Amino acid sequence: MHVFFIPKQLRAQFKSQTNLIASLKKYLPKNIFPSAVKERPVVEAYDIWADSYDHQPGNLMLDLDQLLLSQLLVSADVNGKDVADIGCGTGRHWPFILNQDPASLTGFDVSPGMLHKLKEKFPAAKAHTITNNRFSEIPGDSYDVILSTLTIAHIENIEEALQSWSRLLKPTGDIVITDFHPNVLASGGQRTFKHHNGHIAVRNFVHPVDALKKILLKCNFVVAAEVEKRVDESVKHYYQQQNALHVYDKFKGFPIIYGIHFRRG
């Protein structure tokens, strides 16, 4: 999974996340990412990625995602609760989540290939294939906590999706979200993976963090906790391993992943 960044001197111009995309289109040359990989639809890409997804040692974004989730589950306690993992993939986080003793854990994903891998690892897992944003086959008030990691930017109609998630939650429910920072994606960053002799990129949509907050505020949520990870000394060794210290020096201090715990009631 690779990410690319905008030059440091442009960041100060992006004071408002809601104006981020327009600003980037205005200031960035069209060929700033000449080697960008053509994106494939989410289901197709993850069905291909499923076979190798669990074999990515030293993947910066996956490691940071695990770190952020562990921090956010301090405030969004899942012990004894019914939990939905939307965008569960192969169940990458399930050993950690199950160690917190939830009452139940249900997985949702758009990729049958990823869910197949989940079932291989957790044969008794409750899992559903997502076919639309409405989750109409799932009754309301079904879950205490919804977790969604590295998934939000794959959803085109994010308002419809978040409103549906709100319906699935009990009146005092929690939503925990992590994902690539929208600044990264808006600047041309891609989620890519190796396949045969090339790379495949997964389709993304840019959703500014403020936009997510605005949608969930209308659904009576508040922000209970918020974390963000930047390029800093703690991740320097990832760049060293890739002989890319020049990239680290150039983008030190730039946000690359975020996480938010929303609480209702």
Please explain how this structure is put together.
The protein has helices at 8-11, 20-27, 42-49, 60-75, 94-98, 112-121, 158-168, 182-186, 209-218, 236-241, 245-251, and strands spanning 39-40, 82-86, 104-109, 126-129, 143-149, 169-180, 191-195, 198-202, 221-230, 255-264. The chain has 265 residues and is of the alpha/beta class. β2, α5 (94-98) and β3 form a beta-alpha-beta unit. It has a single domain (53-264), classed as Vaccinia Virus protein VP39 (Rossmann fold, 3-Layer(aba) Sandwich), CATH 3.40.50. It contains 11 helices and 10 strands. The model is unreliable at 2-34 (pLDDT under 50). The strands form 2 sheets. The chain has a 7-stranded mixed sheet, with helices on both faces. This is Methyltransferase type 12 domain-containing protein. It comes from Mucilaginibacter xinganensis. Residues 85-174 form the Methyltransferase type domain.
What would the average pLDDT be, to the nearest integer? Answer: 88
In the sheet with the most strands, the strands line up as: 4-3-2-5-6-10-9
The fold-level CATH name is Rossmann fold
Distance between the termini: 37 Å
Taken as a percent bin, the fraction of beta residues is 15-25%
Large-scale geometry: globular
**Second CATH tier, the architecture:** 3-Layer(aba) Sandwich
Spans of at least 5 consecutive residues with low confidence = 2-34
Secondary structure category: alpha/beta
Number of domains: 1
Alpha carbon gyration radius:
18 Å
Number of strands: 10
* SSE ordering: HHEHHEHEHEEHEHEEHEHHE
Q: Largest sheet, if any? A: 7 strands, mixed
How many individual helices? 11
Q: Helix fraction?
A: 25-40%
CATH class: Alpha Beta
CATH superfamily membership: Vaccinia Virus protein VP39
